[in-house]
Amino acid sequence: MRVNSDSRARTRAAVGLTVAALAAGATAGAGPATAGPKDAPAPAAAYCGAAHHIQQKLSTGTTWRMCWRYDGKAGLVLEDISYQPEGESKPIKVLNSARLGQIHVPYDDGNIEYDDLTGFDFAQGLMNLAPAECPGGTIKTVKVPESWYEDPNVRGLCATTRSRGHAYRMQGDTANEVFQAEGKDLLVYTVNQVGWYEYMTEWRFQDDGAITMNVGATGSLSWDDYDAGDGRGWPIGQGAAAKATSHSHNAFWRLDFALDGSTGNTVEQYDSTVTAPAPGQYAPTTKTTRTEVGRELAGDSGNYRWWRVVSAAGKNKDGHARSYEIVPGPTTKYPGRGYTKHDVYFTRYDKCELFASHNPGSCGPGAGTSVDTWVNGQALKHPVVWMNIGFHHIARDEDQQPMPVHWQGFSIVPRDVTAMNPLTPAELGWQNGHWRPRR
């Protein structure tokens, strides 16, 4: 096979992992339970035990809880994720599971493409982390399924906390009164090596209830230089003799929602239109319409368009249905394959639909192996969200050596999960709804 990449020689570099096992690692289970029909609801997660449980109360008062396991293709899988800000008597469940759904890497010359999760041993490339890479946190030992090494136990999962800067700042009623707070995150991450690349897969659980998920590609540019001769490569090194091939990273995430513990969530799409001022009107008008997504959907982001997943089981203290809004990050959509032509897919839960492309499961006669083929008009019961965020990587001199991390990702943000900002200071707790300053 011809290798023509700027960041990978597809035979993984031999890196010795000789860490001692500190605890039993994760099981090698590869997906949801197989009992029952393929669209049966996912079973409630049992308590995962201390070795695979993450619980963190942040300094601002919010507690996140979840279980983790390690899959032989997807790598890190987080399950039974719940959020409990101060003022809530019990945890609010958000997700049954969250994980990567694929990293698809096609090269601009059309000669090769890769599916890193299902085709190139992403999970087996889990890297050992040094203590300095997890400051103030805990590095957990992971048992890697089908490990290439004699010792499959890798100290490869970091759980720590990070500051993210201002959570809010507000000038009060008097010039001497300022309300401000620094936001805190629970950060959970792994590093997986695929060829010359090292993928940093991070999950940030914020104290305001948002979850931000990112993949960062770093490591090394490949030593295999390639010059397409038509602008598909970028010169690196002295002169123009050595070029690295441009390529795309199309990262997919798979989110199985279970708001308030129920998988009977609904999906809504919102679109707004802006019209010019009518005669005698001061400014343009904006009208927003809501469309319930009743059947599976291949969706495209657009100006003034967004989606949310709505709980069927719980409301906040104001009586509003809890929901999470999907907030895409910057993306370059790759039109070369059917499964990369859309930004988001909402599919009905199916235990065999695990990866966005080159799915290894058998999903029945005539079923395709990519997410676009699963959008076939089914009623959207138990929706699963597949998010596609693309990055077109054109190498530059500064990519060597080592290559700086380039990030791609998105967030889900609480919308009406709590009646007010969960970080609201006590002095402002009375200001809910249409209020007037107290005299």
Give structural attributes.
2 helices; 43% strand; mainly beta; 439 residues
Description:
The chain has 2 helices and 21 strands. It is mainly β and 439 residues long. It has a single domain (50-275, 283-426), classed as Copper amine oxidase, catalytic domain (Beta-galactosidase, Chain A, domain 5), CATH 2.70.98. The chain has a 10-stranded antiparallel β-sheet with strand order 6-7-8-9-10-21-18-17-14-15, with no helix packed on it. Strands 1, 2, 3, 4, 5, 13, 16, 19 and 20 form a 9-stranded antiparallel β-sheet that branches. Strands 11-12 form a two-stranded antiparallel sheet. The termini are far apart.
